[in-house]
Write a structure and sequence with these properties.
This protein is of the alpha/beta class. The protein contains eight helices and eleven strands. The chain has one domain: Adenoviral Proteinase, Chain (3-Layer(aba) Sandwich). Helix 2 runs antiparallel to helix 8.
Length: 320
């Protein structure tokens, strides 16, 4: 009989994390640990539920899994991105700086660390404030990479937030095993850790491709939190149909799980953590993210045009 996992959810104040530049890793890293090459059979079934703690400040939210609006012609900003230098700054959004290369990747390629970091920053700024009691952290890709690759747990603890009062953490998982190569991985998946119940749920849109990496991240989180975590690989996760949509799946599943499963449930309600049967419109997701970025860029340019600083035209459109 399939086992059923129940975890508790509760919303408290979001912990916003700053972006850590990749070049500081070189001062931390030692050779990375050898990961197992074989993929193991998941121990737990994909049937999983969460239980909401009483007393949570819960609000309804109508956000869909993905905006399915029909595609619109690319506006001037998307066209401009194709003409600018790849490393040229495109948008500064709080702690994330998107480059032209990031925009090109978002349109039709593998998502970069910056793409995913932007999405997490956006959810923290635009969605989580509606749930003031949420104690949920969206860990940035750079911090997840540090968690997995830095052997000295003291260095990891000093860089990561305090998880003692956190209920859940989302971690984007990448299969890059070479700490000397930036953007060296080829696949993204999502790990959702319920710290309050000691369970780590893994959502992989490419079968079990990132099983070992996600399992490693769960073990390191267990060390950081000082409590055991059971690793649950959800083998019924929605699957991508090409080789480049994994990052988009991570972003859309993250929002759905955050808003629909962890924050919008009623107290004491059992909520399934399985994503079986869910359809993910990756193309629509890319377009939605582009629309958000372009809207923010327009607003950033409007603010920049009103700035009295003589250097305003030399900085990227900024939202902060």
């Amino acid at each position: 009989m399939a086992k059923t996992e129940r975890i508790r959810t509760c919303g408290w104040s979001a912990h916003a994390m700053g972006m850590i530049l990749r070049n500081i890793f070189e001062s931390f890293f030692l050779p990375s640990p050898v990961l197992p090459s074989s993929r193991q059979t998941p121990v737990f079934s994909s049937t999983a539920h969460v239980h909401v703690l009483p007393g949570a400040n819960i609000y309804s939210d109508k956000l869909p899994l993905c905006n399915l609006a029909k595609s619109a012609p690319a506006n001037s900003y998307a066209c401009l991105a194709l003409q600018l230098s790849p490393e040229k700054a495109y948008l500064s959004y709080y702690d994330v700086l998107l480059t032209v290369e990031d925009i090109k990747s978002l349109k039709n390629d593998w998502l970069t660390d910056n793409n995913i970091a932007f999405w997490e920053e956006y959810l923290e700024r635009e969605t989580l404030p509606r749930y003031p009691q949420a104690r949920i952290i969206l860990l940035r890709p750079s911090m997840t990479f540090l968690l997995m690759k830095e052997p000295d747990i003291r260095h990891v603890r000093s860089a990561l937030p305090d998880f003692s009062k956190v209920s859940h953490t989302f971690l984007p998982i990448n299969d890059n095993r070479n700490v000397g190569v930036a953007e060296g991985g080829s696949h993204w998946s999502l790990l959702l850790v319920s710290i309050v119940d000691g369970i780590a749920f893994h959502y992989d849109s490419l079968g079990g491709a990132n099983y070992a990496e996600a399992n490693l991240a769960a073990r390191r989180m267990s060390e950081i939190c000082g409590r055991p975590l059971r690793f649950v690989n959800l083998d019924d996760s929605p699957q991508q149909e090409n080789g480049s949509d994994c990052g988009v799946f991570v972003c859309l599943l993250m929002r759905h799980l955050l808003v629909k499963r962890l924050l919008s449930a009623n107290a004491r309600e059992k909520v399934s953590m399985s994503m079986a049967g869910k359809m993910v419109d990756s193309n629509g997701g890319r377009k939605e993210m582009m629309r958000i970025i372009e809207s923010l860029r327009k607003e950033g340019e409007r603010r920049r045009s009103r700035s009295a600083s003589p250097f305003s035209n030399k900085t990227p459109p900024r939202i902060e």
